[in-house]
Every structure is written in C-alpha cells, then in structure tokens.
Design a protein that fits this description.
nine-stranded mixed beta sheet; globular; alpha/beta; 261 residues; two-stranded antiparallel ribbon; Stationary-phase Survival Protein Sure Homolog, Chain: A; homodimer; 7 helices
C-alpha cells in the first residue's frame, strides 16, 4: 500500500480502559491514520451480541490527537459503525484489546474482544484481538508492545484469507520471563459453572455466576493454554465458519426428500 | 436409556414467544421429563453473551404442567443455570427455539438461539437449535413438528460427538411445500450493514442498525441458504472449535523463542 494503513482500534473493556491505551500507543508507531471506536462502558462477556432493538449513540471524544468515538453499543456494534459509518474507506486492519483477561481456549466464544475481531473478519478486513491474562484494572501491559507490533506488521504484509482473524494472548509475567511466541489451536477447555445463590431482603433468591476453569487437555503442547501456562505469547488463527465438517457425512442418514417420508 | 430422557428447553425470543410453545408441545410427545428455562424478555442478537457483572433472577412460572422458569439472563445464562442449578442430573438433550427468524449462514454467530445450543455442546450435552425463516410474532410453526421430532429422535439415539450441536432451519412455507430435509454447511454470507442516522430533539445524532443480507455463494447447493431457498429444512452440524486449522502451518513463520528476537 502506498499510503500508511488505516487502522481501526476497539475493545470490550470500554474506551477508558488502560489496555486500549497501550494498543493505541503501539498503533501510533505504525500509522497516523487511526480511528478508535470503543464502547462507552465495559462490555466483557458480550460475545457476538449486536444491538437490534435499541438505538446506538456515538460521541466524538478527545484522545490525544487520535480520532476517537465512544459508542453505546456492543464491541461488534463498534466495528460495524466504524467500518460502515465513520471510516471513509475500508480499513486495512482492525485491532481489538488489549483485553484485561485472557481470551484463550473457550473464552474466544464469550469474548467481546474476539467477537469484534471476528466481525472484522466477517467483513473481509484483516483483524487481530489482543488479550493479557490479568483481569485487574491495573494490569501491567509493558511486555506486550514489541509482540503487538510484530503481529500487526505480519498481518499487514500477509493475507490471512478473508474469513480469518488472529487471537493473541499474553501471559501476565514480566517481559524478561516471556519465552517467545507460539502458534497453536484453541484448547478443549471450559468453565464448570456454579451459581452463588443469595436472597434479597424480601427473601427472594438471586444468583451470581461463578465458575472454575477446567482444561481437558493439560498435556497437549499445541494448544493456546499450554503456551500461556509456559510463558509464551499464544497466537491462534480463528475462523467464523463453525460448520462441523467432519459430521456432514454421518448426518446424511437424516436427509430425505419429502415423498419418501 | 432406561427412563425417559430429561430435556431442557430454552430460546432467545423469551418464554412467552409462540415458537417455544410449539417446541414444548413436540417435546411433550417424547418425554414427560422436561425443564423449561427461558429469558423473561426477548434476547435476540445476544450471541454468546453471558451475565458476569450483574445478578440473575430466576422465577418459577406456570406452564400447563411443565416445570418452567423465566430467567433475567441471556440464553446462554439460561442453559448454564438449567444444567448447574435446576436439573438434578445431566440433561440428555437441550433444545433451543423455535426461533422467530432464520439462523442460517452467518446468523449462527449472532444468534442467541444457537448460542444456547452451542453452550449445551460446550457442556458435553447433545443440543439442537430450531429456527423458522419468519421473524413475525404470528409466524406459522405448523409444518415444523414432524421434523423436530425426527431430529430429536436421531440425536437421542446417535452420538454427535461431545463438541457439536445441530442448527436446524425451516423455510416459512406451508407443510405441503416442504421438499424434505437437507444436511449442509454454513453458507458464506453476511450482512452488509448500514446505519440509519437520525437526530433527537436536541439535534444530537443517533443510529439504528439496518442491513442487507448478501449470500456470496448463491449457486452452492451444499449450503444451508440453498436448502432454505429451495424449501428444504436445513440441518448444519456446528462446533465450538473456531481454530482456523488450515492456517496453522503458514503462521509458524511468526513463531520464535525469545532468545532469537
């Protein structure tokens, strides 16, 4: 590309989160053509939610010389409005994060950060989600910039294919403890949920979601969980085709033309 | 199984929607062990959203002899609370729907109905989402019961594998026009969004999401969109591993140990 790339930045922790500030600083070293559209409040756990029965507000905000907007919608709404309403041309890249909390393994499904990246991929725009394995508001993002720049440079130069994006997760350790970058697959892990039951002053019950993370394949070295646990930056390519292609043949038993029923 | 199957029923249109009533009537012909947990308000487009920063209310409701609860959470919350808090044993099946509106192709990603089914699969429980290609409140579900029963019977007898669920979509046509059932893959289609910009009485802008559905592969006969368009009931197996396995080798170029940087 002749001119500098146009990069859209979003997240799910909200426009004031420290994680997105770090990401913007890295993007500034690559281009001066930046559009930030991020939620006006935390939207963690929103998955691929979109706003279809309510209006969306978009407000220009002051952000140190960068064109930036806060948006009342979900992370996916932010991407949609950035690409279809705010950007005057198709962005060269969408980056989402840095999330306060890991989005490895099954978390990719629940994550607003990764859904924003996936929405970019659905729209045919190269996209990357970045997350740090530390949910605290004062998480230390200082080890992340060189890796973020490296991955962004790679994606700007190499075609991921139109239906894919990248899920990059950082271990929450000091820079000198990071062992490198490892490419892998989504681990087969899940949250074993329990609900904490409490009672309000009227005696009626209410519930808080709690849960324990369980990795069903601790020993598999080709997964994102293994990489993170062993202090590697994890990178997983992600696609939006969720067809279980391996089942198509078996299920043909269910097929029939109506006259044969 | 010796006793009748325990089936959990949920949806994303809310517990009072006509679609879930049809689904419950079909399930009643299969078993008398039924638990309904559905949102207390419409939750369309919620994707795989979960409620992590708010409490959840669950309220027992009267539903013609069936054990039923309305839940203030998302469709995924409903599944989590049904399996971990309400059911005394692991359900044999989770069914979600019948959605008022198709969840074929890319809609599987945005759909609360399908996210509920996928959540079941994540928990290792056979799960099916059903949707009718008609978003209206008075949609005609009368053609769906024999197919629903057929697919449920199949899933109760055949192992889908622990990480998969089924996405079943009905064309919105009279029973006698349905040509049969076709197994296929998720079509490569998308919504081309536009936002309708309006101004409030103070002159400030707000936006409504609108969009046009575009199928990038109209001619491919092995997709869910083709099946629906040609009056077949469409069935797509769906998985929660979103790793783009075909990209893993290429991306190895990005891998490195830290000492080599």
């Amino acid at each position: 590309m002749s001119k500098k790339p146009l990069i859209v930045v979003t997240n799910d922790d909200g426009i004031t989160a420290p994680g997105i500030q770090t990401l913007i600083q890295v993007v500034k070293t690559i281009t001066d053509r930046i559009i930030v559209v991020a939620p006006d409040k935390p939207q963690s756990g929103m998955g691929h939610a979109i706003t279809i029965n309510a209006m969306i507000r978009v407000k220009k905000v002051d952000m140190d010389g960068v064109e930036a907007y806060s948006c009342s919608g979900t992370p996916v709404d932010c991407v949609k409005i950035a690409t279809s309403k705010i950007a005057k041309e198709t962005p060269d890249l969408i980056v989402s994060g840095i999330n306060h909390g890991s989005n490895s393994s099954i978390n990719v499904i629940y994550s607003g950060t990764m859904s924003a990246a996936l929405e970019g991929a659905i729209e045919g725009i190269p996209s990357i989600g970045f997350s740090l394995d530390d949910t605290s508001i004062d998480a230390d993002f200082s080890a992340t910039p060189p890796y973020i720049k490296e991955v962004i440079d790679y994606v700007l130069k190499n075609d991921l294919g139109k239906s894919c994006c990248l899920n990059v997760n950082f271990p929450a350790v000091d820079s000198e403890l990071i062992k490198g970058l490892k490419v892998g697959r989504q681990a087969n892990a899940m949250w074993e949920e329990t609900f904490d039951e409490r009672h309000d002053p009227s005696g009626d019950p209410y519930y808080w979601l709690t849960g324990k993370f369980v990795n069903h394949e601790e020993e598999s070295e080709d997964t994102d969980e293994w990489a993170l646990k062993h202090n590697y930056v994890s990178l997983v390519p992600v696609q939006f085709d969720v067809t279980a292609h391996h089942l198509l043949d078996d299920l043909k038993n269910l097929e029939h033309e109506e006259k044969s029923r």
